[in-house]
From TrEMBL:
The keyword Cell inner membrane does not apply. This is ABC transporter ATP-binding protein. Gene3D superfamilies: P-loop containing nucleotide triphosphate hydrolases. Pfam families: ABC_tran (PF00005). It comes from the Bacteria. Keywords: ATP-binding, Nucleotide-binding, Transport. InterPro entries: AAA+_ATPase, ABC_transporter-like_ATP-bd, ABC_transporter-like_CS, ABC_transporter_ATP-bind, P-loop_NTPase. CDD domains: ABC_NrtD_SsuB_transporters. Residues 4-235 form the ABC transporter domain. One of its GO terms (molecular function) is ATP binding. PROSITE patterns: ABC_TRANSPORTER_1, ABC_TRANSPORTER_2. It comes from Bacillus songklensis. The keyword Zinc does not apply.
């Protein structure tokens, strides 16, 4: 089991004039195949945490380990999916989804065929010769997901990947992404401001305080919801109950921040 552990993580941004603490004493354990969401007020350090896990920045204190090995010192495969798809407009969809494999010197005909098969599985059959401008926003995000999964990442980081989409497209993508990630057994971490999205897709939800970001509450999504698809989960009575609990906690956090 590839266990991701975050050990007493602290991070401060320094400038010549000031020091701003973004994260304080973050410790948690995530098991292989879990889907985790981070919720909290804007500026609470959620994206900073993803950047540290991805190895893009080093924490001021603490460490992140994967199977007890420091993630900063190992060649771990981390997939990172953002709000924008960042597809190269001058490359075809096929060329875009091959980029990660080529950068890692792992392109092969077999890997290419696997990526194109996944493209078909998520509803993009026949678009491999298209350019990004010829696709809708939702289709582009699906292509970005294939590009991310093509390198077979150990961990998938999702930083508000659906927030720029209309509500109907967002719900469809939640359904598709959840189904795809569960079928691959991927460990996934989602940053979102959407309580409903977090409940519908996650096994556990970590609630952050305002800056400096601390984990103030952990919500375990009920088993009966985790066994349903995101769309089905939104219709279940347990969904509304958990939504109200999280809403109340978030409201109290925001009230304290305002005071």
């Amino acid at each position: 089991m590839a266990t991701l552990r975050i050990h007493q993580l602290n991070h401060t941004y320094f400038t010549k004039q000031s020091a701003t603490t973004a994260l304080e004493n973050i410790s948690l354990t995530i098991e292989e195949g879990e889907f985790i969401s981070f919720l909290g007020p804007s500026g609470c350090g959620k994206t900073t945490l993803l950047s540290i896990i991805a190895g893009l920045i080093s924490p001021t204190e603490g460490k992140v380990t994967l199977d007890e090995k420091n993630i900063q010192q190992m060649k771990s495969r981390i997939g990172y999916m953002l709000q924008q798809d960042y597809l190269f407009p001058w490359k075809t969809i096929k060329e875009n989804i091959m980029i990660g494999l080529k950068m890692m010197n792992e392109w092969s005909k077999e890997n290419e065929e696997s990526a194109l098969k996944l493209l078909e599985q998520i509803g993009l059959k026949g678009v491999d010769s298209y350019y990004p401008r010829q696709l809708s926003g939702g289709m582009r995000q699906r292509a970005a997901l294939v590009r991310t999964l093509a390198i077979n990442p150990h961990i998938l980081l999702l930083d508000e990947p659906f927030s720029a989409l209309d509500f109907q497209t967002k719900l469809k993508l939640e359904e598709l992404v959840s189904q795809t990630l569960h079928s691959f057994g991927k460990t996934s971490l989602l940053v979102t401001h959407d309580i409903g999205e977090a409940i519908a897709m996650s096994d556990r939800i970590f609630l952050f305080s305002a800056r400096p970001g601390k984990i103030v509450k952990t919500f375990i999504v009920p088993r009966e919801l985790r066994q349903l698809s995101p769309l089905e989960a939104r219709q279940h009575p347990a969904y509304n109950s958990l939504f109200q609990r999280i809403w109340k906690e978030l409201d109290e956090l925001e009230t304290k921040t305002a005071d």
